[in-house]
Amino acid sequence: MTMTKVDENAEDTHGLCGEKTCSPAQVCLNNECVCTAIRCMIFCPNGFKVDENGCEYPCT
């Protein structure tokens, strides 16, 4: 499972991020969708299937 620590530059949204749309469990950080540790634990306690952006639905 890929998880990223979020800093103050992260946008807490699952909308458009650069040219991509983040899943509800991801945040936009520097125009990239990243999965934060806390969102992974909340949305998918057993982890996510991973795509090129990191954590993504559906849960594994």
UniProtKB/TrEMBL annotation:
Q: Which named protein is this?
A: Guamerin
Task: Cite the entry's keywords alphabetically.
Answer: Protease inhibitor, Secreted, Serine protease inhibitor
**Which GO terms of type biological process are on file?**
negative regulation of coagulation
One Pfam annotation reads Antistasin
Q: Where in the cell is it found?
A: Secreted
The record's comment on protein family reads: Belongs to the protease inhibitor I15 (antistasin) family.
Q: In terms of one coarse class, where is the protein primarily found?
A: secreted
Q: Which GO terms describe its cellular component?
A: extracellular region
Show the stretches that span the lipid bilayer. Answer: none
Record-annotated Antistasin-like domain positions: 35-60
What does the record give under GO molecular function? serine-type endopeptidase inhibitor activity
Does Secreted count among this protein's keywords?
yes
Q: Which organism is it from?
A: Hirudo nipponia
Q: Is Secreted included in the keywords of this UniProt record?
A: yes
